[in-house]
Amino acid sequence: MNRTTDEGGGRRAPYVAVVGAGEASVAQLADARVAGRLLAERGAVVVTGGLGGVMGAAAEGVAEVGGTSIGLLPGPDRGAAHPAHTLALPTGLGELRNGLVVRAVDAVLAIGGSWGTLSEIALAVRTGVPVVGLGTWQLAQPGVQTADGVQQAVALVLALAAGDLTP
Fold first, then answer.
1. Rounded (10°) angle between helices 26-41 and 150-161
2. Domains of the chain with bracketed CATH
3. What CA–CA distance (Å, rounded) separates 124 from 126?
4. If 0-12 CB within 10 Å is exposed, 13-18 middle and 19+ buried, where does residue 63 land?
5. pLDDT string in tens for the chain (167-residue length)
6. What's the rounded Cα separation, in Å, for the pair 43 and 37?
7. Are 32 and 63 in contact (CB under 8 A)?
8. Full 3-state SS string of 134-146
9. Global pTM value
10. Judging by beta carbons within 10 Å of its beta carbon (0-12, 13-18, 19+), is residue 96 exposed, middle or buried?
11. CB–CB of 47/17 below 8 Å?
12. Dihedral of alpha carbons 47, 144, 118, 20, sign
């Protein structure tokens, strides 16, 4: 049984983290919004760090098609969440919430990058959570599969989340 099947062998919605910088480029924001929309259209629950930038843009894409996005916030204030998130959960953990984001999902899609994004990639690789990178950190170590565009990134991250591909 993998993380996207239930005990009876039936499919359940994959949970996919979309991670990236709070201050992102216009292109990264556009990619995150499209990724959020495509993931939600394909039945995925999108998990983010709950704030703006790539996180908020992904939640906006999810909201466009009536999907579900969960924002795991670094602080104690639910009101700090980007308003497009379906659910906002304040953790009070600061950057340590990155570990929660990674461990709550079946796969990670990293778009662009900041130091926080790098920590999420590292935590995912270290704990065996598949990672797909779109214009993100170029690492010498294996563990991150790269995509050339948002369509390819979404298809790859969903296949990895379902266990149809090995990282």
1. 40
2. 15-161 (3.40.50.450)
3. 5
4. buried
5. 345 555 555 568 999 999 999 999 999 999 999 999 999 999 999 999 999 999 999 999 999 999 999 999 999 999 999 999 999 999 999 999 999 999 999 999 999 988 989 999 999 999 999 999 999 888 777 889 999 999 999 999 999 999 887 66
6. 10
7. no
8. ECCCCCCCCCEEE
9. 0.91
10. exposed
11. yes
12. negative
Burial class of 47 by CB neighbour count within 10 A (0 to 12, 13 to 18, 19+)? buried
Torsion sign, CA atoms 134, 66, 101, 91: positive
Query: What do you get for the CA distance between the two ends of the chain, in Å?
Result: 17
